Target: DUF2293 domain-containing protein
Amino acid sequence: MAPLPTPPPRSGLLVFQPVKRRHCAECRGGPLGLLVLENGTPRCLDCADLGHLVFLPRGDTALTRRAREGSALSAVVVRFNRRRSRYERQGVLVEEAARARAEEQCLADAEVRRRRRARDAQRRAAEDVRFTDAFAREIRRLFPGCPADRAQAIAAHASLRGSGRVGRSAAGRALSAAAVTSAVRASVRHTDTPYDQLLMSGVPRHEARRRIAAAVEARLREWEREWGQGWEDGGIAAPA
Model:
């Protein structure tokens, strides 16, 4: 029988997942999925008095730590990686009751984290609503002729969290006039002019902007006036 590769330095009990077929030297059982080396001789978990332990695969650090802390007896499971010529950790063996307690604790923590995430999401949503409303009010202050629903739509688009748009910039969060005007101008450009169609037809962006610049500025000047002033300037009495 070929010898096992040299095991790693001892750091507590070690259990091996053999690469080749192995049988227990004491009870002759096998082939073994897990074995213990005693003076270089393989033994099954039952013969090594570890048969009552259960395997916990690697991957969940908190679960592994809690299970090992709560288990009076535990062992590290390793397997030899031929390509890397080294043993690699596969998981641990712990008492079943310790694993069950650790799983309950981790589930409780996960529930706490879920509730915290839900509270944080609600808080952020409320903050977003307040900021969008403030942005819309600033639009209406700078452009009183802008319809209220349009101002709200512009604010919602510009201030979308994670969008990287002007409303989420430092200037936008500070409600600077330049940032608010930039958001309004962008909305007018895309909504009230043929800018998008020009881009789709192959017109370069700078040229497309040049062609629609006058229309954009005209709309901004229109919105800078009160609705009533706009009606009066047109020679029509403002609606009651």
Observations:
- Residues 157 and 163 are 9 Å apart (CA to CA).
- The chain has a mean pLDDT of 87.
